[in-house]
Amino acid sequence: MNPQLECLYQLAQKPERRIIGLMSGTSLDGLDIALCRITGSGPATTVVVEQFTTIPYDDTFKDSIRAVFAKKQVDFEHLTLLNEQIGRRHGQWVADCLRSWSVPAETVDLVASHGQTVYHAPRKQHQRPDYPNATLQIGDGDHIAAETGIITLSDFRQRHIAHGGEGAPLAVYGDYFVFSQAGENRVLLNMGGIANFTYLPGSLDASVVFTTDTGPGNTLLDAYARQFTGKPYDEDGQLAAAGTISAPLLTALLDHPFFGQPFPKTTGPEVFNTGYVRDAQQRSQTDGLPAEDLLATLTRFSAESIAQAISKALANVPEADRHVRIYMSGGGAHNPVLTQTIEALLPGCTFAKTDELGIAGDAKEAVLFAVLANEAVAGSGTSFGERQGVPSVSMGKISFTK
Ligand SMILES: Nc1ncnc2c1ncn2[C@@H]1O[C@H](COP(=O)(O)OP(=O)(O)OP(=O)(O)O)[C@@H](O)[C@H]1O
Ligand SMILES: CC(=O)N[C@H]1[C@@H]2OC[C@@H](O2)[C@@H](O)[C@@H]1O[C@H](C)C(=O)O
After folding, report:
1. Is the CB of 115 under 6 A from ligand 1?
2. Which residues of the sequence carry a binding annotation for ATP (predicted)?
3. Which CATH class is domain 3-172+361-399?
4. ipTM for the complex shown
């Protein structure tokens, strides 16, 4: 038998595993690395984050990814090279981190790598009847396993699609296993480049658990902050706070079929990008708004689409379960203009950050991929019923170290 199969068999039976989760999201800000100690599996999963860091991407690397990111036409050679380069760099950064944390690679059971999404195309978006839902993440896991000497799971989204999902959001699985709490209805709201949420009933009934993307989180804010100030984002929402919301532009921005589609649904910067904003400006005759007003309007757009999606989703759950506490995470949770607007738009809900639940909001997605890998090797298959968007499958492909 391949000794690495034996190794997987052994680690699947351990009461506790040490797993590194890696996340590089749609914001292209860097690689999140979370070293986790995970006990149990399924609803009995507990996680302790031993170390967390973000390795920022330098401008050259960002531009190199942007050349293929969410673009219909790309240089295919560049895409092919990037698949290997991202895998290798991510692997090297993990190895560097382990050295700086004085954690020997042999003490880590698995790496769980999300990779870099370069294109996301659910059927509702591409509208080509002969093609299924589709998504593409690059940064091959074989390089990570080779660079780190640790068995690596990667490419998590394809099995979700193969079983009828759109390949996202995947956070729902880990959210349910790690953050469910009997007696408290919870919404776990993550605001990265794109925003999404998970509804967790206080009844703990897995067949009621629900997830969807809501639309843009920070992606448009970042694009215009970069254009106007040269900085990567609108720090603490300062530009937005100084501006006035343009009502006609806001109406035009909210006028997209995505917002009327039934749940669950997913999207990405393929739809919500600067071209989308320019088009909305033309339709609403609001070209040439000052930077502050544009940022104020775009921040309100993100907040309003998030709040509307949560309200609509809650309208579908039994009345007794509609009172929720919303736990915010992702970079958008650091933007007070965004968070305060969402709070004002959802007066029936209470609010907190996931940090209150023991996992820092910036680390959450990386941690949740570690939980998915834990489930793939040690889970016994929790059933989420027939609920759309949450197929009852394990996820992740295995890369051996040699
Ligand atoms: N102090 C801050 N003020 C305003 N925005 C901030 C602040 N800190 C972080 N952000 C925002 O958070 C973003 C990074 O968020 P995050 O790392 O959660 O995104 P991501 O994981 O790439 O996205 P996704 O979840 O869509 O894949 C930054 O690009 C920025 O927009
Ligand atoms: C295809 C893809 O990479 N989607 C991301 C993106 O970023 C946020 C949102 O859109 C979410 O659906 C997903 O990531 C998180 C980690 C998820 O799958 O839960």
Report:
1. no
2. 25-32
3. alpha beta
4. 0.98
